[in-house]
Every structure is written in structure tokens, then in C-alpha cells.
Amino acid sequence: MSHTILLFGITKDIIGGSVHETGNAFTTVGELRRHLYNIYPQLEKLNSLMIAVNNNYANDDDRLQSSDEIALIPPVSGG
Amino acid sequence: MQLNKERYNRQLLLAGFGEEAQLKLLQSRVLVVGAGGLGVPVLQYLSGMGVGKIGIIDHDVVAESNLHRQVLYTTNDIGEPKANKAAERLNALNPEVEYIVFNELLTTGNALSVIGLFDVVVDCTDNFPTRYLINDACVILNKPFVYGAIHQYEGQVSVFNHNGSATYRCLFPTAPEVGVVQDCNTNGVLGILPGIIGCYQANETIKLLTGIGELLANKMLIIDTLFNQQRTIRFQPKSDLPQITRLDSDDYKSLCGSARLRNMSVSELASRIKNNEAIQLVDVREDDELAICQIADSIHIPLGEIVAKANKIDGSQPVIMICHHGIRSRIAGEELLKKGFTNIFNLTGGIHAWALEIDKTMQVY
């Protein structure tokens, strides 16, 4: 099992591409977050990184299903 | 108030808008922070549509590299202050609007007095420190703000702090470390993108002022202009964030440095107390330990409740975390940093060191 993650803003540059396949499944949003921070330490330097599940803001203890649509939404500063 | 029925004719004709909404616009006061890529379309449409009073705050001058997207300015304007030039052009577009020009940066020093003059703020800035400053000032003054931001081919739009809706910090409690997210000056941007996002901001502002439609409050619209994808993310206000009662004294510059837990020795704490410095002491030990000894004027939040009760802590002062030996207080301090606090110290050696070195009458355990 794997999760497909849609990437926005600077996360596209950090991870590379607009979609990321995790390769394995994660039970909670927090687990997924720690996994991503491990492979892509730059993500953690964002200090704030919203993870949305099915277009809703997700908390770290929210549970994940394989069918969930997951998005990484970082802060953006340009204007 | 007298409406110019000719100028606003097409809006007066519009079902669901009409004279009532037009009068509301005429009586509204909007501050646009930043007269650059996002600010230009916001200013143009708010002016054209007839917002009564428009504040323009920007300290910058027009540069040649601005002109591909800041299409209110001309080649002759290079080197001229943006706020003045914008007001001049907008006044030609609609002289019925009252323009209030602030040829300066929005800072901790002027934010509350400037924003206080307006009903709504439109965040058209291009950097994190000013975005957090706008958020915090609007929270303190209880004013809504319409947010827009761009990155390469993508934009974000939302309405924050409107009738108790979520704030920017509910989504992004702390700013990224310096250099992780670059701005348009480094990353580049297509001229049209701030035009699109700014128009969405102007649209939300008009809806907010007139009460029509549904706002992007507790929602963020994300637009990918390269593949024509749009999505709306929903969220809720967070109740466990630090309360904002004061603006950062350093104009939010340190906020974009990394917030790290710093150490404080018992002797430094003793001297800060002696000098009557504004500090907040947070003791994270359990009740039975507190009964044995405590440092005067500390508030008590056991480690297990630190996240839930973080809003009891005044983050505008240096916060010093205290426990028995400095271990639990370190964990509590790290939790507060994750919550968005920035000015957190851990008392090295805890109350035990305090009893041994500073207050020798204190009971040790």
C-alpha cells in the first residue's frame, strides 16, 4: 500500500514534481509527517506545513485511509 | 450619502448587488498593505468599484523589473514612490474615493494605529514578517484581513479573522526558517499571476464589505494557473494557540529566524527578576512538588497540560520554563515552540539549581 500526495508551493521543489508516492502506508497524519521530515529534512525547516486530507485540514492524530487524497500545503510569501 | 448613479450604473443594475451594496462600499474603509503585484489589481478594482476610503501603505519605489506585473505604473514612474504614484493614478480613475497614502513600511510601531483607521485589511505583501505582523495586529484589533500569496504558478487566497474565523496562525503557527521559501525576487513570477490572485482578493473584499455570497473564511482557495486546477481546503479556528496580546517588538524579524529553545541560568533569571524585567515564569511540575517550593510569580501548568493550556501563557514576553532539574521544562518548551511561541527559555538545572545557588532558604527535595 502507498499514499499519493499532491504537492503545492515549495514542497514541489523540495520533493521534486507535483505528486509524491510514499511507497508504504501510514496509519496517521503524524506518522506520514515524520516519515516525510526524515526523507526531506527541508520540509521540517518550513516550521509550519499543512497536511490536508480530502480537502480538509488534518491534525497529526487523524487516521489515514489508503483512498484518502492527501495534499502538502506550505506557507507562501510571494506577492 | 449621494451615489453617483452613472459611474456605478452596472453594479446598481446587478441583481443581488444594487444600491444597498453600493452604499455599503461607499461607507467602507479598506487598507491595502503593499502596492506591488497583488496590491495593484486590488487597488484598481476597489477604486473603480467605489470603496469610500482606501489606504495605501508601501515604502518602496517603482523598479523596472516591477512593470511586467505592476501594470498601474509606467516606465516614467521608475524610481518614484509606489504609494504616491498609485494614489495619483487611482484618483484619475475614481476621484470620488478618498485615498490615504502611507509612504512607509508597516511596522510594529505603526501597525495598530494605521490598521485601526480601517474596517478591512488586504494583505498584498511579499514577505513573512509583514504577513505575521498583519495577522497579529488584526487579531489584536479584531479586524478581518483578506490574504493572498503567490509562488511560481500558484496562488493562495483566504479571509482570516472574520467574525471569529481562523487566523493565518491557525494554519501556519510559525514562519519558515530564513531562505527555505524564496520570494518572487528570487523565484521569478509570471506577470499575470498576481493579477489573478489580486482580483480574487478584491472580490473577497467586496463580498466581505457588502455581505454577498460566501467568503473564503475557514477556507483557502489554492489556484494552479499552469494546469487550471483549483481546490478549496477547509479548516477550523484553533483554540490552543498562544494568545496574541502584543506585537513582536523586533518587527517580526527574529520570527523568520529559527525559533529555538534557549537556556537561561539561574543567575541570569535572578538578575532579570531583580531588574523587574517583563518575563513570564511557567512551572511545569506537579501539584505535590509545587507545595514544597516555588519561585514567586510563576504560573503553574503541569507538563501533561502544557499544550491544552498554552493559551494561558503570554508569548509577547520572554517565557521561562521551570521544573525540578530542567528536563520536563525542556520538553514543555519544545511543545510551546511547536505551538508558535518564539521566545522560550529553559531554566538550566531547574528549581533545584535555584535553591542551591540563589534562594538558599528554599527547601530542596
From TrEMBL, chain A:
Q: Write down the CDD domains for this protein, in alphabetical order.
A: Ubl_MoaD (cd00754)
Keyword terms: Nucleotide-binding
Top-rank lineage group of the source organism: Bacteria
InterPro entries recorded for this chain?
Beta-grasp_dom_sf, MOCS2A, Mopterin_synth/thiamin_S_b, ThiS/MoaD-like
User: Does Nucleotide-binding appear among the keywords?
Assistant: yes
Q: Is Metal-binding given among the entry's keywords?
A: no
> Do you know which Pfam families this protein is assigned to?
ThiS (PF02597)
The family this protein is said to belong to: Belongs to the MoaD family.
Q: What is this protein called?
A: Molybdopterin synthase sulfur carrier subunit
The organism that produces this protein has a lineage beginning with: Bacteria, Pseudomonadati, Bacteroidota, Chitinophagia, Chitinophagales
From TrEMBL, chain B:
Family matches, as CDD domains: ThiF_MoeB_HesA_family
Q: Which residues form the Rhodanese domain?
A: 275-363
Q: Which SUPFAM superfamilies match?
A: Activating enzymes of the ubiquitin-like proteins
* Residues forming coiled coils: none
- Source organism, top-level taxon: Bacteria
Q: Give the matching InterPro entries.
A: Rhodanese-like_dom (IPR001763), Rhodanese-like_dom_sf (IPR036873), ThiF/MoeB/HesA (IPR045886), ThiF_NAD_FAD-bd (IPR000594), Ubiquitin-activating_enz (IPR035985)
Can you name this protein? HesA/MoeB/ThiF family protein
Q: Which organism is it from?
A: Danxiaibacter flavus
